[in-house]
Amino acid sequence: MSDLRLGDIIDDFCVKCKRLTNHAIVSIVDEQAAKVRCRTCYHDHDYRHEQPPPSKKDLKKHELFAQVLAGVAPVSTAAEEPADKKKTRARKAAR
């Protein structure tokens, strides 16, 4: 972003309106918008870079999926063994 000033109009996702709307810049940090004000509902919030926050339903799904993956232990099979171990076992069996 180049030459942003307080009061400039930019697009951002408003959580209150639940849509992409025009916003006025309220504060700037490190030459980037930090806080913005929706010009439709006048709600102040952090600048979200036009990205809607993930829904609570999606967050719950990801959390449950992570729990399921954590509970599953990897199954060891003979096909996954390194070739050196297979040769050593074959030599021991031949003796």
Q: Quick one: how many beta strands?
A: 4
Label the CATH architecture. Answer: Roll
Label the overall shape: elongated
Predict the CATH topology.
Answer: SH3 type barrels
Low-confidence stretches: none
Report the end-to-end length measured between terminal Cα atoms.
73 Å
* Major beta sheet, strand line-up: 1-2-3-4
Query: Can you give the helix content as a percent range?
Result: 25-40%
Structural class: alpha+beta
Q: Can you give the mean pLDDT?
A: 83
Main pleated-sheet profile: 4 strands, antiparallel
The DSSP helix count reads 2
Strand content is 25-35%
Domain count, please report it. Answer: 1
CA radius of gyration: 27 Å
Order of helices and strands: EEEEHH
The CATH class turns out to be Mainly Beta
